Known about the structure:
By secondary structure, the protein is an alpha/beta fold. Helix content is 46%, strand content 12%. The chain has helices spanning 17-32, 53-64, 79-91, 143-153, 169-179, 209-215, 219-227, 242-248, 263-276, 279-292, 299-309, 319-323, 339-350, 357-371, 375-387, 395-402, 404-417; strands at residues 4-7, 36-41, 73-74, 95-98, 101-104, 111-116, 120-125, 132-135, 158-162, 185-189, 192-193, 259-260. The strands form 5 sheets. Strands 1-2-3 form a 3-stranded parallel sheet. Helix 5 (169-179) links the parallel strand 9 and strand 10. Helix 1 (17-32) packs across helix 8 and helix 15 (375-387) packs across helix 17. The chain is elongated and about 100 Å long. The chain starts with a strand and ends with a helix. The model has no long low-confidence stretch (mean pLDDT 94). It binds one RNA strand through strand 5, strand 7, strand 8, helix 4 and strand 12.
Amino acid sequence: MTVRVRMAPSPTGFLHIGGVRTFLFNWLYARGHGGECLLRIENTDTSREAADSVGQIEESLRWLGIDWDGEMRFQLDGADRCRAEAARLVAEDKAYEDDGAIRIRMPKEGVVAWDDAIKGRIEFPADQLEDMVILRSDGRPVYNYASPVDDWVDGITHVIRGDDHVSNTPKQIVVLQALGAELPVYAHAPNVFGEDGKKLSKRHGAVSVGEFREAGYIAPALMNFLALLGWAPDGETTIISRDELIERFTLERVGSSPATFDYAKLDWMNGVYLRDLGRDAYADALLTFLLEQGSEWDEARIREAAPIVQEKIGRLGEFADFVGFLFGDVAPDPALLDETVLTEAATRLETVEPWDAATIEVELKALCERLGAKPKTVFLPIRVAVTGSRISPGLYESIELLGRDATLARLRHGASIAG
RNA sequence: GCCCCCAUCGACUAGCGGCCUAGGUCACCACCCUUUCAAGGUGGCUACACGGGUUCGAAUCCCGUUGGGGGCACCA
């Protein structure tokens, strides 16, 4: 039997990172089993539909590198089929009319149970289940009816979804049984929480894929991180490629307890991926990112600056903070400047040849000896005067890139405002 | 209130009865390297929620307690 799964977002807003994590599990499972992965928008409730959220969803998935097979579908497209099946259920007395709506008969005794691929066996006492409305009085199918019908029609073999659907499952199983459909394998992945143990939301930090992208996380790092949230191939692996993920992913190894989203670890991991990029690939990624941000900085200049920040930043969004001094004026804090040092530095750098980091280094170190001062006390004012900050890329490289004229100008201006 | 699920370091997790005086990674602390910040290196800090069983032996199995989460709609 060919594996077929589906990713089923609601078009109620931007793609939530927790939802993406379960989509990733679906996708990894399908790709690892030579199966198909469908994308179905659960738009049964049109009132909650947010403008262009479908476009957002597609865009976010594409960016992450999660693809789907066939055309995107919409739950509403199956409404006619839902109505036809409901009529059949009524005819078979498995459902009945109630105030214009159609309700399905739930079993009155025993249990509704299934073997969850992640959580193991789960049983619900049948007396907990009320006869559920499947068709509203206006004829629109309800989610807990439309979803299993679609799964059946689409030939879904594995329903991999969030924990919050566990209590929907018995209802959907009853629907499927009434329909005479074969049951899919259910797998419920635990939720993703914020640091306080509550469902991950805006107040914890970024939650939509778009926000992570805008902050300068790169897709492979985010995918790696997400996959490890609630799943682990073993006790050691932390950095794992997309291909290896596909190869090693199994539902059995998805944990059953909820996971907390650790932003600090994501930062670290993103840095690992960023540093691992080749020089050109890094510059390309940076450039693409900045362009998306609407940056108008010179492309060649960005490429030049890329290598000196690669070891320094963990998110592409930090680029501007680090090398903004190459693209615009700086406003150094006078209290951190030192007139003597800056004047002397300007004098020495005025005639240095050639203008490169190595030579500048030699010159500045010689300056320290001449002033009989520790490198620390000499380099700080220079760094602040030149870059406007006490934190920057390597000083010599920064000076080289800035160029002689601008460097001298900033050194001298710094000396004049030193306090 | 009723039903379901969950429970190992601050975080993600490894562990599926003896290999555990509980391992890895992030975070944190210290030191080293060092022009700042990072990166890198070395070392350190912390965990089996609690109480009963079962067993020669339990983080691992069973029961209970506590704590957390989810659900009980003509929402998805």
